[in-house]
Design brief:
- By secondary structure, the protein is α/β, with parallel strands linked by helices.
- It has 17 helices and twelve strands.
- The strands form four sheets. Strands 5-4-6-2-7-8 form a six-stranded mixed sheet, with helices on both faces.
- β11 and β12 form a beta hairpin.
- The radius of gyration is 24 Å and the shape is globular.
Length: about 500
């Protein structure tokens, strides 16, 4: 008996349905393999803000191969379906649909747990920086804030001490101050989310993607909210950003431009300066990035009492396996763009970033220019898919983000500081760093955004300490009307 042939419209619908199911399976497999567990916010934000064409070409090539596999599997499935009787097709389609559902559930996690009364948890606890009276210190310090890509605290605790991955940053952390356990909120689990949450005091959410005024939302970036960079810029600090990756990726440049960062350098800006940015990877590698940043930080000041803030974002340790940096790579015989074993590449990337970031911090601290100084080195977020877990000792309670804070007076003497045992999140970085810089404000002293200053003389519990991480993460993962209004500037 000849196989049953479907009418053209029905065949087209079946083909589209099969392609959709395999696309879901392929896309979620790709995310799970290269990025680990993701949240809907993370996926939607990157779709909304674009810039994927500025991602690591190796990741784009992997995505293309995944797409080719999806197309091939779709054609194979349609070939089989056309040779089955009608009632035999349903089990195969059901199996494929079940696989798509299972793959989505294994890849995407939505932690939203609404308030029992349906209220806006963010609005209940948010202290708007635009509605407090801020006083700057008489002696404004220079500030260095380094976001190290995907830097877990666990990297400082190798099971074998001789196999240290961050020897210099571990020593620097011992000399500096640690504040306890820095946990990741879901809205701070990717680079722009981590930077935004730390500087602006609340987790990042996608907004307006499917609304009637989505174009208006896309032209704004937290237009009604203030961040630490806004507060400092308004009080005389000149703020510069140095990153290896493109500023066009995921709205990063838009964010910085909208919030007081007047000087911004990414991959394209380095190329304009005549630097060779590798064809593979996320952009200018850390050894060159740090040298260029330090050289720019030595430029003459516009006036003698000008204070500066330097923001730096590294790239070498970006997942899934880091990048080999010829500026400090081991003599392994590889060409500049060659790939080695993923675990070996990540070890080399961590050790390279460790060396160059520690050197930058040491230079900054040693500079005697008669100004106080503040240094904060922290991971932008946890590594979503760590390769080296088996070589590390995890802290009780789960993975935390690396951080170290230090303050110096105008003579270069470190100010007294004790390590703390606090439980906090990225949102607490805003008031803590503001207070470290010397800002004071009223009313609601020591509170900004959703955060509590960890430097306050009288301890104020963070939201994580008061409500627990599960509750805070769940509440802040839900859509917030206040956040929507802050984004568009209609508060």
């Amino acid at each position: 008996m000849s196989p049953v042939r479907l009418p053209c419209p029905r065949a087209a619908l079946l083909a589209a349905f099969v392609l959709l199911l395999w696309a879901v399976v392929g896309a979620t497999w790709f995310l799970r393999t290269y990025l680990g567990l993701v949240t809907p916010d993370q996926v939607l934000f990157h779709l909304q803000n674009g810039g994927l064409d500025y991602a690591d070409p190796r990741m784009l090539w992997r995505a293309f191969r995944c797409l080719a596999a999806v197309a091939g599997l779709s054609l194979l499935s349609l070939f089989l379906l056309r040779r089955l009787r009608h009632w035999h097709r349903l089990p195969l389609l059901a199996l494929l649909g079940t696989g798509a559902v299972v793959s989505v559930n294994a890849t995407v996690s939505d932690p939203c747990q609404p308030e029992p009364d349906g209220g806006d948890y963010l609005a209940r606890h948010y202290v708007d920086p635009s509605r407090v009276r801020v006083q700057a210190p008489a002696a404004k310090p220079d500030v260095l804030l380094v976001f190290v890509e995907s830097l877990d605290e666990d990297y400082t605790r190798p099971r074998t001490p001789a196999a240290a991955l961050l020897p210099r940053l571990t020593r620097l952390q011992q000399d500096f101050q640690t504040l306890g356990q820095l946990r990741n909120l879901s809205g701070a689990s990717w680079t722009v989310g981590g930077m935004f949450s730390a500087l602006c005091g609340l987790p990042l959410q996608p907004v307006g993607l499917m609304s009637h005024n989505s174009l208006e939302f896309s032209t704004r970036f937290f237009a009604g909210g203030l961040c630490l960079t806004d507060l400092l810029a308004a009080r005389g600090w000149e703020i510069s950003f140095y990153g290896g990756a493109s500023l066009k990726f995921a709205g990063k440049g838009h964010f910085l431009e909208s919030h007081g960062v007047t000087r911004r350098f990414g991959a394209e800006q380095w190329q304009q300066r005549g630097l060779r940015v590798p064809a593979q990877g996320w952009g200018l590698l850390d050894s060159d990035l740090v040298e260029q940043a330090w050289a720019d930080m030595q430029r003459p000041r516009r006036h003698d009492d000008e204070a500066r803030m330097a923001l730096l974002l590294t790239v070498d340790t970006h997942g899934p396996a880091g990048a080999r940096d010829p500026g400090c790579a081991a003599a392994d015989g590889l060409q500049d763009d060659a790939e080695g074993e993923p675990a070996d590449m990540m070890r080399d990337a961590l050790r390279c970033t460790d060396a160059v970031v520690a050197k930058l911090v040491e230079r900054f601290v040693a500079e005697r220019n008669g100004r106080p100084k503040v240094v904060l080195v922290m991971g932008d977020h946890l590594n979503p898919e760590p390769l080296l877990n088996g070589e590390l000792q995890s802290a009780p309670g789960g993975r935390t983000v690396f951080h170290a804070l230090a303050r110096y007076d105008a003579e270069g003497r470190a100010l007294p500081a004790d390590d703390q045992r606090r439980l906090f999140t990225h949102v607490d970085v805003l008031p803590t760093l503001a207070e470290a810089v010397g800002l004071s404000w009223a009313p609601q002293a020591h509170r900004l955004g959703l955060g509590r200053s960890l430097l306050a003389a009288q301890r104020q519990d963070t939201l994580a300490e008061r409500d627990g991480m599960a509750v805070v993460n769940g509440r802040l993962s839900c859509r917030s009307p206040l956040f929507q209004r802050l984004w568009i500037g209609e508060v």
